[in-house]
Amino acid sequence: MYVCLCRGVTDGHIREAISEGCCSYRDVRQATGVAGQCGKCACEAKNVVRKELAKLGTLAQQSQLQSLAYSAA
Ligand code: FES
Question: Ligand 1 site: residues with CB under 6 angstroms?
Fold first, then answer.
């Protein structure tokens, strides 16, 4: 789905930027150019970034819990 029509940035581009190391909206904006023109997409872009980072945070927490479970066993 296109998030930014001006720059042709999709939600997939944003997820890819995060998977390649971006860890904030500012990083994603620099990497993809999202919201760099009219700015109407900024709220949606921030939402996509927020959800993706939250998902990764949840996965990291699950991984840490699994590591603790293995080490406790
Ligand atoms: Fe993203 Fe215009 S729609 S800058």
Answer: 4-7, 35-41
